[in-house]
Amino acid sequence: MADTLYVGFDLSTQQLKLTVINDTADVVCEETVRFTKELPQYGTSNGVIINGHTVTSPTLMWVESLDLLLSKLSAKAFPFHSIRVISGAAQQHGSVFWKRSASQLLRHLNPQETLKSQLRDAFALEQSPTWQDSSTSEYCQKLEEIIGGAQELANITGSRAYERFTGNQIAKIYQNDLPTYNNTERISVVSSFLASLFLGDYAPIDASDASGMNLFNIHSKTWDERLLIACGGEALREKLGNVEVFGLNVMGNVCRYFVERYGFSPDCKVLPFMGDNPSTLLSRKLCPSDVLISLGTSDTLLLVTTYPITTTESHTLCHPISNQYISMLCYKNGSLTREHIRDTYTSTASWDSFNTILRTLVSKPDETKFGFYFQVQEIIPFAYGIYRFDNGELVDEFRDPNYNIRAILESQFLSMKARSARLLHGQRIERLLVVGGASANDSILQVLADVFGVKVFSPRDGTANSASFGAAMKARMMACGEDRDEKSEYKLVASPNKENNKVYDRMLSTFVKLEERVVMAQGPE
Ligand SMILES: Nc1ncnc2c1ncn2[C@@H]1O[C@H](COP(=O)(O)OP(=O)(O)O)[C@@H](O)[C@H]1O
Ligand SMILES: O=C(CO)[C@@H](O)[C@H](O)COP(=O)(O)O
């Protein structure tokens, strides 16, 4: 491996991932640390600790996972000195509260000791709020009231107030735990936290990730004073630091810790780290009529627009390396809820059994049956619980319970179809490009093709690690420019079945009505 190398990290919900590519954008190495399995001492389940609506991850677990990942590479004699540029991605919205004086700890990291032992006392909050948290409804309501409503807030920041968005998480600490807030020197989002470790100093928040905070004006690309005051008072601006609006600007070189402990070159450049969804977009070259769908822990739908389209159920993010914008739909009940249904309705709890049932026992859509699977509090719609409808009647279970396996896919994809149509204003989708863990499953992608009536493609190189790959591609872009041919990057994995597509077209309006019924049925907290 004598090439020049470009590295991308992804600190996602369940794992820390790394992708290394060379000058010709070939993946030469991938590595992962799975939090729950490999760092069990932190007591997480699927990477998080759930306490009612509060969902956190131990900040020190993330710190330790970085040394663990790099020591795995060391054990393989990985040529760290060949890395020219690094960048990274992370779950959006989550936050890290650095204690007063933590910057001194970061600036003096000793290569002889682990990051964990040196940063043990660096955090004002030991548990970082994550994107799965939904405990801040009262602060969301207040923020929308102050600004003049949900749409008004969306017009400024790209999104209405969402529980997981960093500004509302900060408001919760500011209102309930002032000593901790006052003891906080810097608030990073998860991506800028990881970048800070590499820089040995606080890294700025990248504009695409700042767009997921309910604090940032996506037009002027600056913090909004009224929102800062509402969420964290006069002190918040200083605690957040600057925003980096252009993702190809070099923030600095890797700090001495990584040079001396692992053998990184002292000239290795660090680019801003981004949210995982913007990074996923950079992993692939898109045509204007392409829509990208990521089926990971969360499910997301992403499209690039030249101007911001703001609605109260989508998110608009600044594009990390251009003046364009990203429109995004995000669902919390993604892969983990599919796993739950798989484990409940298959005898072997395997994707193979799930697919066999889908292809043989419930191989056709049934327009009389609908299921809604909000095992955890959903984002769109804001709903919780599992609901099944047969011929318009709410039922406890389908007569053939196998139908749950088809229904969970159908409802997710019908929701994406109905909501993306509102963002596309009649523009036709030419291709659906699918990435993320579940993109390996062709049977799931067939249902997606049938619901949308559009051909589905997935990456030819098969990498499921799109966010870390996108970050590595950004690192490479800094050195080599943008030179990809989008045509060769994808393989066709599913073409729509016309009959099934007609059924799904008929089902769409009933789906929307039943979803409204589910939302109406939600009781008060
Ligand atoms: N063959 C498969 N079919 C469906 N889902 C799968 C398959 N393989 C992996 N997955 C799902 O992918 C998820 C992880 O996706 P990934 O994109 O790596 O997650 P993250 O959002 O943490 O980056 C797992 O929770 C798993 O359920
Ligand atoms: O909340 C969002 C986007 O708004 C999520 O998409 C997170 O960014 C989590 O990412 P994964 O762990 O699923 O990759």
Automatic annotation (TrEMBL):
Enzyme category, top tier: transferase
InterPro entries reported for this sequence: ATPase_NBD, Carb_kinase_FGGY, D-XK_euk, FGGY_C, FGGY_N
GO molecular function, one term: D-xylulokinase activity
Listed SUPFAM superfamilies: Actin-like ATPase domain
Top-rank taxon, per record: Eukaryota
Record-linked PANTHER family: SUGAR KINASE (PTHR10196), XYLULOSE KINASE (PTHR10196:SF57)
Family: Belongs to the FGGY kinase family.
The protein's name in its UniProt record: Xylulose kinase
Organism: Paraglomus brasilianum
